[in-house]
Fold this sequence. Notes:
By secondary structure, the protein is an alpha/beta fold. It folds into two domains: 13-245 and 360-435, NAD(P)-binding Rossmann-like Domain (Rossmann fold); 249-356, Dihydrodipicolinate Reductase, domain 2. The chain has 18 helices and 13 strands. The chain has helices at 23-35, 46-49, 65-68, 89-96, 101-106, 108-112, 140-157, 184-192, 200-210, 227-236, 249-262, 279-284, 287-298, 300-305, 311-314, 359-379, 409-428, 430-435, and strands at 13-19, 51-54, 61-64, 77-83, 117-118, 160-167, 215-217, 239-242, 266-276, 318-325, 334-342, 348-356, 384-385. The two termini are 23 Å apart.
Amino acid sequence: MTHSPSIHPADGKLGVLLPGMGAVATTMMAGVLLARRHRALAIGSLTQMGTLQLGTAAGERFARIADVVPLTALGQMEFGGWDIFPDSAWEAAQHAKVVEQGHLDAVRSELEAIRPMPAACYPGYVKRLHGTHLKTARSKAEMVEQLRLDIRDFKGERGCKRLVSIWCGSTEAWRSPSEVHRTVRSFEAGLARDDEGISNAQLYAWALLQERVPFANGSPNLCVDFPAARELAEELRVPVVGKDLKTGQTLVKTMLAPGLRARALGLAGWYSTNILGNRDGEVLDDPGSYHAKELSKLGVLEEILRPDLHPELYGEIVHKVRIEYYRPRGDAKEGWDNVDLVGWLGYPMQLRINFSCRDSILAAPLVLDLALLLDLAARAGFHGTQEWLGLYFKSPMTASERAATEHDVFRQRAALDSTLRKLVDASHGPAAADRR
């Protein structure tokens, strides 16, 4: 990540392209449309509701992030994307049953105007979904070119000055990086020969990077976290970030685990299970897709608690995660956590958490923030992996594959705030730095 001397202004429309226009994407779009009409609050969005500490110890002050950070306004955002079904954003939101009817009715005409482009989808990567709104191509290389044409057409037809993209599609069956992911040249050769190691998400990411569109991976898929993608992002100076939006149980873990460590309380085990019945739950019913999500969730506790430094407290943790598809629950995900603690003299204690939440309600503000902050990063001349946005992810990407991953939500927020303060200074010049 590098800094430019100044931040380009947020002039004109910002196009937000979303691969996957299901519950999360349509909930975010409906919320933005409502918020910019002052019909609802963008709760959960730091860019809209959060504050930032400025000044020195002698003159400390707090300001709303939206008031001091040079972000694109909600009214400048233009939405588009791709999906395996042809439903408009209105129809998809009706099907998802996340946003209440009164809210949807208030922005119906705008949602009806947002229609997905045909998706690039090879079915082997998401076995539980069978789409009808699909592209055809002679090779994966040609599929990437079709996506690039979509991106250019959307930008021109909608009059957008800049674009960003956030993957809101389904979790794919897990595949480890292979030789095809090693360099830009090997990846391009793999596209030409339809290498099975190149998944749907990677096709979108590659097309967007080629078009210099900042990209965030909201899923646990292998997407931009492999050497060839890192190389291309650096070469074309595109900001990227991921992966897997941090919403329900993992959000709770990354808030609670730092507290246990801070008080030197021991942990014997943490058992997590949850049920959900939306499209994401249906996809995760496939063992391959579930394994990708499981890998994303399981790394959190070890990175925060550091059993290598505290073997007596955390050296033998039993950590289990279960996800069950239960269709009647829809988007209303419910999670149960049993936490077996160890206290003074080794005496056992127990903490139980029951989190009844809404999957897309928690994810939507993260998508909005990532769209605005990635656009800000691009306008500031940042490129490559944006570690300062790790707050939003279960498995935050690092600039180096060998670097340690920070999962502590409070340290992640501190990193975000530190970068935002630098951007405030850059946007206001020397006078702003003097005030701090």
